[in-house]
Design goal:
This protein is an alpha+beta fold and 162 residues long. It folds into 2 domains: 2-76, Roll (Ubiquitin-like (UB roll)), CATH 3.10.20.30; 85-161, DNA polymerase, domain 1 (Orthogonal Bundle). The protein has helices at 22-29, 85-92, 102-115, 121-128, 138-161, and strands at residues 2-7, 10-15, 48-51, 54-57, 70-72. A 5-stranded mixed beta sheet has the order 2-1-5-3-4, covered by helices on one side. A hairpin with a 2-residue loop joins strand 3 and strand 4. The protein is globular and about 45 Å long.
């Protein structure tokens, strides 16, 4: 079947089997490697993407489900040469060891901020609780998420001022 997708602000048309996962299309057909293949069951969060601003697990989402929706991957979060504030704070906080989980962590924080610009510590923890990190950088990840709240608020103010 032929599908039209909107991925990272770009329209694309692909011929794929209806039961193909969004993750397979992103990685294999569109060469977007931000979303990782982790568990393949939608439980670890490594494959997370934004679908209409909400976090979704691409490994269990059929590509047909996102036709007509906006899909944003880690690669599509930046605006030109400027990283999304969430991406930048994760870098600044050095919130990674192996980095495999970071795609899901960053996507989850961005989704949270899209809908709750001033989340509480409990809301941040809840947004991240289904993203698995095996390296043990949980404290750094939580600190990056806290910093992302402040950086995102500052970025929103800059946008309003422009």
């Amino acid at each position: 079947m032929t599908l039209k997708l909107n991925v990272n602000g770009q329209s694309c048309e692909l011929s794929v089997a209806a039961n193909t996962s969004l993750l397979d299309v992103l990685r294999n057909d569109l060469a977007l490697n931000g979303p990782k293949y982790g568990c393949g069951l939608g439980e670890c969060g490594a494959c997370s993407v934004l679908v209409d601003g909400k976090a979704a697990r691409a490994c269990v989402l059929p590509v047909t489900a996102v036709a007509g929706h906006e899909v944003i991957t880690l690669e599509g979060m930046a605006r030109g040469d400027r990283l999304d504030p969430v991406q930048q704070t994760f870098i600044d906080a050095q919130a990674a060891q192996c980095g495999y989980c970071l795609n899901g962590m960053i996507i989850s924080v961005r989704a949270l901020l899209n809908h709750h610009p001033s989340p509480t510590q409990e809301q941040i923890r809840a947004a991240l609780e289904h993203n698995l990190c095996r390296c043990g950088t949980h404290l750094e990840i939580l600190e990056a998420a806290r910093q992302a709240v402040l950086a995102d608020a500052a970025a929103r103010r800059e946008t309003v001022d422009e």
